[in-house]
Amino acid sequence: MLSIATLLPLLVFIVLIGSYIWGRYMFFQINSNKTKYVAYLYDLVVAVQIFITFYCFLSFAPSELSILKSFELSIGYLTSLSLFWWSIKSSKELSFATGAGVGNIITQGPFLIVRHPFYLSYIITWITSTLVFNLASLWITLTMLFTFYVVAAFSEEQQLERTTLGPSYKKYKNEIGMFLPKATQWKNWFFGLFPIKTK
Hints:
By secondary structure, this protein is an all-alpha fold. The chain has one domain: Four Helix Bundle (Hemerythrin (Met), subunit A). It is 70% helix and 0% strand. It has seven helices and no strands. Helix 1 runs parallel beside helix 3, helix 2 runs antiparallel to helix 5 and helix 3 runs antiparallel to helix 4. About 3% of the residues have low confidence.
């Protein structure tokens, strides 16, 4: 019998994974046969990460998943879920990372915070599971997935920089961080909240 501490983050995780699956097949596009194999490899590694996380949820005794761990899982998964759907809402068209085409530059919603909020959403999910359950297999798949996101993000950006959108994207890239806000963004937010009054 699953405890409430296990059930709440598990339900959020199920909704989160359902959202990712929907996004993978209904929102993102794979534009070339060559990149389909990369996408299939990616899907396999994601499936391993998901399977191991489900195994952890179902195999942990109720006493092993403390209220603190349950809270950490819930906060991490809810953050990922919110970021994912905020990114969906802010995006009208976006090709899958390894696709041949490039879409428009999106500079609204979470794209004002980081350049790759979808990847950040995924990273938060896998890091949350890995840190809480702390299994070697999760660390291995996390490393593989993080590497994929970095390579895919650089590839997307190189494609955009070679198009007519290149100059605009370079300006956007200089202002907004890849997976985390840049120091200048933090500084601007801080002084926006606590402006320094000058005489």
